[in-house]
Amino acid sequence: MKNSKPLPILTNVDIIDAGTEGQSIGKVEDMVVFVKGAIPGDVVDVQVTRKKNKFREGNAILFHTYSERRTDPVCEHFGTCGGCRWQNMKYDSQLYFKQKQVHNALVRIGKLDIPEITPIKGSASTYHYRNKLEFTFSNKKWLTKEEINDKSLAFGEGPGGSRNALGFHIPGLFDKVLDINHCHLQGGSSDRIRLEVKKYAIENNLTFFDLREQSGLLRNIIIRTTSTGEVMVIVIFFKNEEEAISGLLGHLKQQFPEINSLLYVVNEKKNDTIFDQEVKTYSGADVIFEQMEDLRFRISPKSFYQTNSEQAYELYKITREFAGLTGKEMVYDLYTGTGTIANFVAHQAKKVVGIEQVEAAIADAKINSEINKITNTVFFAGDMRVVLTDAFIEENGKPDVVITDPPRAGMHEDVVRTLARLKPKKIVYVSCNPGTQARDLMILDELYKVTRIQPVDMFPHTHHVENVVLLELR
User: Fold this and answer.
1) pTM score of the predicted model
2) Stretch 41-47: mean pLDDT, rounded?
3) Euclidean distance between CA atoms 127 and 473, whole angstroms
4) From CA 280, how far away is CA 265, in angstroms rounded?
């Protein structure tokens, strides 16, 4: 059998742009090269890892010139952890490339005639901005280069050493977890809670999960916080070992009196999702609350809520402004989730109809209306394609304004076609993926004109960008 030909090294590659998946883009003659570990302005040698007819992929292995856009990353885990891949790029440059990403999507993918894009709304907080993080336990932690070279670092815990980790999955490796010392994404007591859980578990010989063998006690921990200072901790166990569970949770309750909601789940399934699992309350309340203007939003363990609370408020204000409501409009809020946007705009609308596939989210949406004494909202659970029928429109009223905030995959084409047939005066399209947003807008382009565009940075140090577009009937 012939040995496969080794992949080449490309020398002196100019990095000219930032890609949409966190990689940077270089060019060698007419060949596009997607490069990990470099940012626009760098000149690097690239070890090719993947070779295709029209492009190459690779890793930066030698820097000839460092970009003026560079800055020193603050996180010790940068480059190994899969998050915050743009942490080595100055924040104003991050915003520049995010706005460029929105422009390219709408013009190149959507082929749309667009107005000038309003400058991107940057995040006031570029660290400690997330209100939710999920960490994974593993008995086979990922070893960094430093740990491989210094075995005392790799196996320093307990007699005989340990490979226990509590942190994030390594990108592309489902069973490898990077042990996190300090994460700059979530503030408050998040780090201290995680580290104390790990310390207690090791000292009391609680077993960390082995994903391949499907064994061990400790599986995941979710920490949620609110801008009002409330804290929810959910510990997910693989087995129902009552004494061990009670010991750990009792220790957490004693060490962290600031935890308002201490919950746990016993998940014996092969996958990590807890949406089909019972969540049990160990101490405190079973929910926490977020505040936005004069509204309170109930956050249950399974609730979706925008993970950057400060920027969520900015996003919703922009959405409300684009809708331009006068109090007379019938508004449809598609993919309403827990009804955050629906309730946020309800005071300015005649009626708001929210539709969402997840039944538990709709239950939260109704409760959020009740909490805030909002009486002009109605919510329906079901597949958007199935719910949004002529009979539904006839029963609930034809919308004057549609607000839609779909998942990354965008709207199903049938839903887009239904909107085109309904012809609301305005559509406010909120998207976390400008590419699929542009695809959907292309279908609506014959009937609607894009009149306003506002990108919002919800996730500093990542390539992700949120975008709000106002469509008005031609």
Assistant:
1) 0.92
2) 97
3) 40
4) 6
